[in-house]
Amino acid sequence: MNHLHKLQEWYRSQCDGDWEHGYGVKITTLDNPGWSVSIDLVGTAVEEKNFEPVLYGVGKDAVEGSDEWLSCRVEEKTFEGRGGPQKLEEILELFLQWTKGPTSR
Q: For the whole model, what pTM was predicted?
């Protein structure tokens, strides 16, 4: 099963007749170029779960013109993943692996 299919399953499991009206998943492109993934966590099993940020190729480690960069973190109960044009699958994989582990609830 691929990561997009697993994300679809995760999203569907959150849909309870209420959650999907105020929260959801957003996947867009960036102009530097790259991907942006925002996933609302409010009301999910991972809402309070700790996520250790994953960063490479950004900030002082950035290489101008490189597509090898990624930044994933949780801020204000939203998973925020950003990465180069070939990093969408890795962003989704990081999110999905994190949701599989033990939760704090």
A: 0.92
